[in-house]
Every structure is written in structure tokens, then in C-alpha cells.
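Incident review: delayed structure delivery

Summary: a single-chain prediction request sat in the queue longer than the usual turnaround. Root cause was a stuck worker, restarted by the on-call engineer. No data loss occurred. The affected request and its eventual output are reproduced below so the record is complete for anyone auditing the incident later.

Affected input:
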Amino acid sequence: MANQSLFENSLNRLKFFFAVSGLILERRKVVRWQITKKRCIYIINTIWLSIEVIGSIFWFIDNIKNGKDMAELTTITPCSLIATLSKFKTLYLIINERSVNDLVDILRELDVNEMDFNIEAKNIIAKKEKRTLDSVIKSFNALSFGLLVAFSFMPLILIAIKYVETKELELALPFLVLYPFDSFNIKYWPFVYLKQIWSESVVLSDMCASDYFYYICCTYIRIQFRFLSYEFENLIPNKHNKRDDDQSDIKQKIIKLIKWHQRLIRSTNTLELIYSKSTLINFISSSAIICLTGFNVTIMNDVVILSSFVTFLFLSLLQIFFLCFFGDMLMSASMEVSDAVYNSLWYIVDRGVAKDLLLVQIRAHTPCKLTAFGFSDVNLTSFAKIISSSWSYFALLNTIYSNKQN
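Output delivered after worker restart:
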């Protein structure tokens, strides 16, 4: 089927990011030695990244003791936060690996169903949703690559500018990390530089692997909800009469549609189980990341460093926006089922069939939604609240900084 190929193509786009991060998409299809290999990659990446995060914490503490300016102290914090967030997001994918497998299986099975679709209408719905998904992934890929390039080459550009101005070679690194050795010694500097670039690549790969799987699942659950809505709306033909054989056919089809609806509810609940805890951490950390990155952008004078943090700010905003955007789309699609039942010709069928449709409509009024571990719904309203909180923190931080400067 057409939608099946679209779903498989979307899953194939995850393979590179899952391979780099050491994650397993479908454990049942992987032999034991491959699982061991993936786990080793994940553990090595985690240790590698933990060294950078711990080193940045020690750098922060050391520079507080030395009385460094607030502007310099806040430059490393957003990077450390997003690195920690990326590891939490992948950790919950590993913890819920069985649920990930179940969800992929459910979505595959839903693609191959017995319902008699209008193929042309189905293709229009699927391709429209797929275009949205592709646009989001492409834009996020472009920003991630831009961020990787910006932070990778920023120190080299700063070194070159400094050398032209002073004729002295003053080494720099992408991130401010305190090591138990002199990382600016020419003997160690190239290795530390490459290590930090790889750490950044791991962070971006972890974010992409986790978020893209979320986007894909939300998109294809939404597609299925829209197919279901189409079937309910066209359940009763215009030329329907109340003969018993017609009523029996409609009742049988309603039973199939109800089972389909139940499987979609189960798939949403499975997605909620996988992502609810990491989403809560994402919501809490995003306000701080956006606030601190915005603060860095407003106080920086160096154009090279500024361009890197502007890219970082856009990436942080888009990351939390798309998380809420796809959650909102899934929720709205689940509620469309209720409208579809109402728009059907329920008033020309007998009372028994009409009651069945009423029960479906009542259930569909309760949206299938994703939450941040039950504390907040994942929708555009939550995104607005996160931006509002970030602005409040930013205003407070900016006021404190301005008062210190004066």
C-alpha cells in the first residue's frame, strides 16, 4: 500500500541517527552481537559526553571562584543543559525499547487494514501530512548541520582573527570545559578539539533520533485518525434505505471502525508511555535554555560567537515548538472523529445504529493526547507558556546584569 511505503521510508530516515547514537529501533530484528555493539556505542558516547558536561560544571565553579563576569559564565550553561537533555531523551527510548517495538508494529499493522478506502482521498491525506513531516525534518537537519559547522569553525576563525591582529597564536576551543590537564597545550589541543566536535555531533544525533521518531509516530497516528474520520463520515451512503441487510452491513463496519479507533487510542497511549517523562524534562529545561541563549545573544558583541548562539537559539526554539506542534496535531486529529460521526448521515439509519454512532462520538470528544508526565498537555498552548516563562526569566536575568554593569 502507498501509505506503508511512506511509513517505511520515514523509518529509514532514522537509521543513521540511531546508528550514531547507539539506539535500536526494532530489537526483534537484531541479533545478540548487534545489540551488544549498539549498547557499547551508547555507553561510550554517554561516557564521552559526560566528561564534557562534568568538565563544564567544574569550569563554571572554578570561574565563579575567580570572579568571572556573568556574561561569560552563562555561555556554557545552555550547551550543558541541552547535552544532558539529549542523553535523557535517548535513555528513555532504551528503557521503553519494548514499547518502541510495539508501537512500530501497531503502526505497520494499521497501514494494512481491511477497510475499503477511497484510494485517491487516502493518498491526498497521506501525502499532505508527509510533506509537513519532510519539511520539518529538513529544516531541523539544516539547522543542526549549521549549528555543528558554526561551533566547529568558530574557534578557528577567532584564532585566525587574533593572529592577524596580534601576531600571536592564542588557541581556542568550541566549548568551555575544565580538564585535568592543559587543554590549550599544542600537544593536546587538536585531540581535545576533535573530541568536543564529536561530542556535539553525538548531542545533535541523540536529539534528532529521539525527536524524529516522535514526529514520525505523531504524523502516522494522525494520518490514521484522519482515515478513520473519512470512513465514519462516508459510512452511510446517500442512497441508503432501512432494509435489514443494509443495517447489518453498517453495523459490521461500525464494529471494525470501533476496533480501529481502539488501536489508535492504544498507539497514542504507547507513545505517551515512551515520551512522557523525557517530555517533562524537556519542558523544564527548555525555558532555561531559551532564556540563557537569548541572554547570550543580546549581550555578545563578537559577530562570530553571536552567529553561533543565534543558530543555537533558533534550534532550541524549533525543538520545543515542533514537540508541541506534533502533539497538538495528533490531539486535534483524534477529536475530528467526533465531527466526522456528526457529519455522517446518522439520522437516516435505525435507532440501534444511531446509538452506536453516538457512543463513538462521545468517546471521540475526549482527545487522545500526549502529556509531560501528566503535568501539562503537549500542545501549542504549552509552547506559549514555555515562551512566556523564558521571557520572564530573561527579563529578570537581564535586569540583574544591567544593575551589575551600572
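Verification: Residues 220 and 406 are 55 Å apart (CA to CA).
Action items: add queue-age alerting; document worker restart procedure.
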